[in-house]
Write a structure and sequence with these properties.
Number of helices: 0
Oligomer: single chain
Distance between the termini: 40 Å
Length: 116
């Protein structure tokens, strides 16, 4: 059974940093590209970042460029998103996401709230 478990969210002030983590199990983590997506209150899902299977290539949404860094540890089946200079508009539930065998998977999400 594929499982993705996000953690690391919280309430922070504008300008602060957060490090989100996603633990993966039930599939060959080191053979799959991974993504971070987020759901802003009242809006649809928004893609945030992705990283290829071996970590050699990363991409970011324009809104996150220069403020986020995605990484992975294939030995520990862990995906990480480091976010800096957080803004109120970054408030959302963040999910790690993968397409495996033609199916889409994401975890329960972790809430990030940026507020003064």
């Amino acid at each position: 059974e594929v499982q993705l478990v996000e953690s690391g969210g919280g309430l922070v002030q504008p300008g602060d940093s957060l490090r989100l983590s996603c633990g993966a199990s039930g599939f060959s983590f080191n053979n799959h590209d991974m993504n971070w997506i987020r759901q802003v209150p009242g809006k649809g899902l928004e893609w945030v970042s992705n990283i290829n299977f071996d970590g050699s290539s990363t991409n970011y949404a324009d809104s996150m460029k220069g403020r986020a860094s995605v990484s992975r540890d294939n030995a520990k089946n862990t995906l990480t998103l480091q976010m800096n200079s957080l803004r109120p508009e970054d408030t959302a539930v963040y999910y790690c996401y993968a397409q495996i065998g033609g199916f889409k998977y994401w975890g329960q999400g972790t809430q990030v709230t940026v507020s003064s």
